[in-house]
Amino acid sequence: MMKKLLAIAVILPALAVSSLAWADNDNDERGNKVGQASMVVSDAITKHECSACHMPYPPALLPARSWKKIMTNLSNHFGEDASLDKKTRIHIERYMMAMAPRNGGNDSLRISKQRWFVGTHRGVEARYVGPGKRVQTISNCKACHSGAEKGWYGE
Description:
- The protein has 155 residues and is mostly helical.
- Helices cover 38% and strands 0% of the residues.
- The chain is globular and about 40 Å long.
- 23% of the residues are buried.
């Protein structure tokens, strides 16, 4: 039973994210595939700036419209001031939007409020998240998924 549950926990997120992805043949100005949902942050500037405070979340975890909203309000980034100079902000915004799914998801800016996330993490918060528990916050992907920054979200 445990192996079956683990297999479901590993497969469902991949299916959910792959259902958000699409492919087209357009490239952005740096040669990245536009619309190619990515489970890894491959852009060095994005990785550097975002990882200064938290794990750099992959573009595929939110739709492009959510990344746009996040990037245009960095002075109030989930209660923190994450402001960047204009050139860096625009660079990261373009990268995230080019690599994120254009459709799917909901309008929440929180990855943990996306339907695929809620479905694949059902019961996790009650068991593992909170003061004195294994994971302090549900947004700390690396606490359970040690390979998250490499695109691997298995246990």
